[in-house]
Design goal:
Strand content: under 5%
Shape: flat
Order of helices and strands: HHH
Number of helices: 3
Radius of gyration: 20 Å
Structural class: mainly alpha
Number of strands: 0
Helix content: 55-70%
Oligomer: single chain
Length: about 100
Amino acid sequence: MSSSLAKKTKSFFWGLLLVPFTLATLYHLPLTLPPFYKEPNSLIYLIVGVGTYFLFEILFNKPMRTYVFGHELTHALAALAMGGKVHSFHVSKKRRQRSSEQK
């Protein structure tokens, strides 16, 4: 069995083991969140959060660099969690076009 196939098989079985936990989370998460119709303060918090986001957008002129950093960091952490390697990680102010290549 090749190394690549062994890694894919290992990842597949880890995924199967995590399915019950994922389903339990999907079932219980809505039960733990406060319903907006019962708690008026929770709707206020949501509105304040959305307003704060738009304020940051206006004041900091669309903080895309921070967003891209967080987005790419999530990819890197997911790769590490699945046994992959991160060879480089770079975020800059320059906007670059991405092209998808299949190997």
